[in-house]
Here is the input.
Amino acid sequence: MLLLMSCSNSDYLNVVPRESVAMAAIDMGDGEWLMGDGEWSLENSGVDLSSKMYAFETPDGTLGLVAKVDDSDAVTDMFVKLSGEGKCSKPEERRGARFVMVKDSWLAGYNDDAIAVIGPISLMERTSTEQKMLKMFTQDENHGAKNSRIFQTLDTLDAPVALVAQASALPEQAVLPFTIGAPKEADASQIMLSAKINKEEELLVIRGKTFSYNEGIDKKLKENDKVFRPVTDDMLGRLSPRSMGFLFMNVNGEDFLKVLQQNRGFQALLAGANTAIDMDNTLRSVDGDIVFSLSNLNGDFDLMARLAKKDFLKDVGYWKTSCPAGSTITDVGKDAYLYKNGDMRFSFAVTPDNLFISSLRHREVQAEVDTALKLTVGVLSKVKGSRLTMLVDLDKIDNKAVAEIIKPILGGKNKILYIKE
Here is the structure.
């Protein structure tokens, strides 16, 4: 949406729906780097760059962006020029506002006060979306975002880009790391993420925390957060250069397992793992750093964890005899094993120095010898000492369409680092 916008007073904020489940504030004065080398120029666009832009998501999954208009005639001129280049339709007037379809997927509407972009939509949805946008343009403070709890929290965050979102608004594949400490009585709509986003050296750095507007849930979140200890450099020289992302933490396994068992999402994952091996007992043996390495968007991953003990290896013989039908566990070396179930492969081993190493693959892959990934001094200094950190390399994402959408929005940065505050 920022690529599409390459787009007084605060009345324009009333255009942002109050019921939004996620909001982001973008200060184009401090955050102009977000636009990277995009094709949409902000110069002479008619958009007031001294006022923040606001992105939002509504409960039905609608995505939008709202900005203040400084000169609506200049906005029209911009879209007329872009339509001549085949990038959008010509502006059409509807009940005091003008509308433009951009790349047949996004609807931009604007008047003298505000411009909004909503999508992605089909051409068949244009009329209903125009009606929705016209209603947004006439909202008063009682129906706009300014009086919502999410906006009031957002307004306290000082950063070029700030975000407040319900966990339910995050992509399903990405939500688990942010909700590790969620108690069992909380659903995803009650867990909130707030984040401050900035450019630091070669990285886009997101510093965030989870909380809840429910006092009881918020208290348990804070209590469960105590399980995370400062990450050391134990694993930082063992990372695979082929992985697209890493999750770092340092925990005592007994305490960590109790937290995971409260979380609905992790309960399901643990139940699945425990049908093959006793993952609960394995996690209880951990005392130190844990690193999850994500290989691709299909759910393949590697895991390394520092163990305090390896007594669970005595149970491998029982695991072999109690495997689900159609699956097997075989020896592949000293204290090294391979679980097979159809095309799925789960290998696990314990090294002589008590390091648990495992790998999950959902299809047959040929083993490759990796040299260790060399992290820059800047990245190392941010990971070491943090309580929970995620590093994502957009250049390693196997879905190039996803990477090509995200990277320009993030100012061309290819690495994202999330640090739990």
Residues 3-8 have pLDDT under 50 and may be disordered. The chain has ten helices and 19 strands.
